[in-house]
Predict the 3D structure of the following.
Amino acid sequence: MFIPGSWQKSSYSGEGDGNACLEIASSPTRTAVRDSKAPALAALTFPTASFTAFVDALKDTGPRDPQE
């Protein structure tokens, strides 16, 4: 279980109700991901090392052109 208040939303998401964003909470062994618009619903959890590798891979590939 993750402590309320330990959830973090991306600084890229901005402010307001119209922003669809994910929130994460981390422990030494697990990282949880949830929908910021529905925080009471279940979160997905991943091993922290796997989630970190996933995020690093996204950073390495950069943004994609949505027209492709």
In short: DSSP finds one helix and four strands in the chain. The beta strands are 8-9, 22-26, 30-35, 44-47.
